[in-house]
Amino acid sequence: MAVKDENSDQTLELFLKIGLDERTARNTIANNKVTANLTVVIQEAALNNGCDRIIGNLLYTVATKYPANALVHRPNLLEYVVSSKVKTPGQLEAAFTFLSNLASENFKRNEFEEACGIGVEVSVEEITQTVNEIFEENKAVILEQRYRTNVGELLGSVRKKHPWADPKIAKKLVDAKMYELLGERTAADDEKPSKKKEKKEKPAKVENKAVDGTHLQPSEEELNPFSIFPAPEDNIKAMFVDFGLAKERGGCCYLRYDDTNPEAEKKEYIHHIEEIVQWMGWKPFKITYTSDYFQDLYELAVELIRRGHAYVDHQTPEEIKEYREKKMNSPWRDRPIAESLKLFDDMKRGLIEEGKATLRMKQDMRSDNFNMYDLIAYRIKFTPHPHAGDKWCIYPSYDYSHCIVDSLENITHSLCTLEFETRRASYYWLLHVLDLYQPYVWEYSRLNVTNTVMSKRKLNYLVTNKYVDGWDDPRLMTLAGLRRRGVTSTAINAFVRGIGITRSDCSMIRLDRLEYHVREELNKTAPRVLVVLHPLKVVITNLESSSVMELDAKKWPDAQADDTSAFYKVPFSNVVYIERSDFRIKDSKDYYGLAPGKSVLLRYAFPIKCTDVILGDDNETVIEIRAEYDPSKKSKPKGVLHWVAEPYPGADPLKVEVRLFEKLFNSENPTELDNWFVDLNLDSKLVIPAAYAVPALRNAAVGDTFQFERLGYFTADKDSTAEKLVFNRTVTLKDTYCKGGK
Question: Is the pLDDT of residue 564 over 80?
Fold first, then answer.
């Protein structure tokens, strides 16, 4: 224990040297992860002997918010921080965004400096001039609202004009201008403003509502904000349950974005979600955003305080966690209602620093349900919102907003997975104390599939640590990954429909079951083509080298001879390529491939007989095979091989890249293991850079799916270029799933 105390003292001393106040430093040491990160960051910055507080605060932000997918570039960023070229929180946030998008690609200083405003100096005079202009533009409103004016909006306008300006200077100048224009704050400034619009009617009860509604379950907001798309388990099962149930019951389903965190919302994610929903065959009744209801949510929060069910709190996240674990009330829990109303108004108007206050619901700290321990309703974030703009500097939490917006939208059934079941008490508590209509909440088990992980946290770990190639890696059970692999939406819907809905959270669905539905569909829809993955050269000695025949090959097994659209042309020349695995030096009775002195049929072409084998210098490796073909087709060999020929003398066949995917994990249920990621199948992806294909495949477009005969079903990948096509194996031809179990 003495060693531990000594280490803690040294760490505390190190954190104090970089300008952290003692309270923040001690709270940081209580968090092992942040302590380790901050210590490494200080060492990388070579600041073990300390620095000024401004740089120290920036280092702390780097330690807690730096994007995990770009760690290789952290030393570059620290160089800019230490030299005070990156010196404001705004520049640091811009750096995080730039580096997160850059990931592990080459760092280009000029692009980084432009994105982060390096070298851009905004003088106090420039900020002052902008503040004066903004006040002049809004003078009438400010004089009318006086100290009820939303200062956050004014600061947002300054930030728009000068994104790299020092926010503290801007705040100081705005406050001074307010005082210059309005003078001392009066008692009237603290009075409740009169309502200018009629009070909204309560939503109609469910019995009076003709239209059913459900919603797409959102991700948990405490997770890494950039990992929210795609939400794997919800996308696959919940989408079918929500939209499917509404359709079956003659109702409708909303698609709502719970965009309560301004730092987490990205328009590309939103557009992608809408695209995925459409691809899955569903059409939302209406697309809404929680941010559409920010004003309603704010007014209801004020009402919640007035009714004595909410209070403004000043505890740090660490203190809140500690008090919850001990079931202790916050020291500010019983502060006067009028005091909380004033402080909440100050929060709204940008008068309180970020992290210094939250609005918490006054629930039940003695409850056995952790989700009743005075959950946070609002927090301060001086960050513009992609959908709501600069109007707000306080934002509601998911726990506060979700149930209220369900009620305001007259949702009849709010469906979610079982991990949200403990939140039901908070959901109904809030609607009850506000006298709002209460939708019906129902939870069901999430989808668990063998040999993979479905948890957002685990998937985010795989993505950010580069174990997979992004959220749309074809090995992942995300909708984006499945689509890229070539799995169709109809196959996914058939799979989920066959599973049904249960409240048993222990059920594990075999991956074979999904693959069965994929094969069932692709067998009917995917045209056949010839591709050789591992080519072995065969020279046909009794065919002229200048001779090239155009043969007919079937796109479909049941192609009718009079249907020309059911066939495609394949060249046949004196140089063909077969799979290396289809040849053996030693023959056997149960082997139907090619061997010395043995004949096989080249599919859609002619029988060939091996007459000679050319070996490499090691006298073992087969370099080339010599063979003769039977133009009369009188011989009837048992073995049938796929093949690809040179399209004309001396020209290689079409080269394509083929990616073969296996199960991502070796164990059926890797989540049961302590070190689940150690169970990763290191051979889950095999890239074949130079497979040979028939010319008919040359015009394949991204997303086109084919059956490579004898090999499996393959889909053209988005990495394809004009120079080289890339194909992902969707599924093998072999079906290991028992049809009786479908």
Answer: yes
Residues 335, 342: Cα–Cα separation, whole Å: 12
Q: What is d(CA 489, CA 239) in angstroms, rounded to the nearest whole number? A: 12
Burial of 473 (0-12, 13-18, 19+ CB in 10 A): buried
For helices 74-82 and 89-102, angle between their N-to-C axes, nearest 10 degrees: 160
Q: Which tokens sit at 601?
A: 């049929």
How far apart CA 36 and CA 15 sit, in angstroms, is 12
User: What is the DSSP secondary-structure string of 475-543?
Assistant: TS-SHHHHHHHT--HHHHHHHHHHH---S-TT--B-HHHHHHHHHHHHHHHPPEE-EESSEEEEEETTS
Tokens 């003659």 appear where? 250
Cα–Cα separations (whole angstroms), residue 83 to 70, 77, 163, 425, 591: 21, 10, 20, 51, 71
Q: Which of 727, 655, 726, 660 is nearest to 693 (CA)?
A: 655
Whether pLDDT at 383 is above 70:
yes
Higher-pLDDT residue of 101 and 553 is 553
- Label residue 424 by pLDDT band (50, 70, 90): confident
* Whole-angstrom Cα Rg for the chain: 33
Query: What backbone phi and psi angles, to 5 degrees, belong to 422?
Result: -70, -15
Q: Torsion over CA of 612, 617, 623 and 627, rounded to 10 degrees?
A: -10
Between helices 109-116 and 74-82, what is the axis angle to 10°? 60
CB 90 within 8 A of CB 159: yes
C-alpha 193/C-alpha 654 separation (Å) is 74
From the list 444, 420, 411, 320, the residue with the least C-alpha distance to 373 is 320
- Structural domains in the chain, CATH included, are 8-116 (1.10.8.1290), 124-183 (1.10.10.2420), 288-444 (3.40.50.620), 531-741 (2.40.240.10)
d(CA 74, CA 98): 12
pLDDT tens-digit readout, 653-667: 999 999 999 999 999
In degrees to the nearest 10, what's the CA dihedral of 574, 575, 576, 581? 130
- How many residues in total does the chain contain? 742
pLDDT at 4 over 50: no
Pairing mode of beta strands 567-572, 531-532? unpaired
CA atoms of 64 and 11, how far apart (whole Å) = 17
Q: How far apart are CA 708 and CA 359, in angstroms?
A: 60
Worst-scoring range by mean pLDDT, 92-106, 121-135, 425-439, 619-633? 92-106
Rounded distance between C-alpha atoms, residue 165 and residue 91, angstroms: 9
Instruction: Give one DSSP letter per residue of 97-149, joined into a string.
Output: HHHHHHTTSPP-HHHHHHHHTTT----HHHHHHHHHHHHHHTHHHHHHHGGGS
Single pTM value for the model: 0.63
Give the whole-angstrom CA distance, residue 419 versus residue 502.
14
Show the tokens assigned to 294.
Answer: 């920010």
CA distances from 480 to 110, 240, 512 (A): 33, 15, 19
Q: Cβ distance 118 to 112 under 8 Å?
A: yes
Strands 575-579 and 644-645: what pairing?
antiparallel
